[in-house]
Amino acid sequence: MSDSESKERTFPRPLTDTEKRVVAAGRAAERETLEAFLDYLRAAVIGRASGVSETDARRRLVPSKTTLAGMLKHLAVVERSWFQHYLLGREKAELGIDFETPEDDPTWDLTDDDTLDTLIADYERACAESRAAAADLPLEQSFTHPQIGGLSLRWIYVHMIEETGRHAGHADILREQIDGTSGF
């Protein structure tokens, strides 16, 4: 497809700002591309969880603990774990991360105080904190993970794209089961 053809391409609906940023990242530098895709997936998760009832957000439609509400809570902790704890070295207790292994992971467990609005707001805060944590660091910024060893900020971005993308797919399926809507 030539440059003139790509400029004329139309989409079935107007693109969101986040989607426009991903499209523009097609010719961007590595960091801008990584950030655009991660933000697109973050927005996809929020978009799939938005607009459902509190009951539906908590409803378990699969055998695991996976719910739309639980996914938001889980992803907020994952954001803080990678960007705040591992990258910046903040203590887990300071971040409210009170488990050590995936086997005792309570991040999908909901309390009575967890509402869809508070979970979305907390996830958005965690994402903003992640952006701020990484903003002034080079992609080569390294740190040591106790089980994996040496890693970089670039690795965190790629891992978070994978993690968030996987859960965005889960959210898509759950939302389709809840009310039949699909897509972002």
Automatic annotation (TrEMBL):
Pfam families (alphabetical): MST
SUPFAM superfamilies associated with the record: DinB/YfiT-like putative metalloenzymes
Family matches, as InterPro entries: DinB/YfiT-like, MST-like
Protein's recorded name: DinB family protein
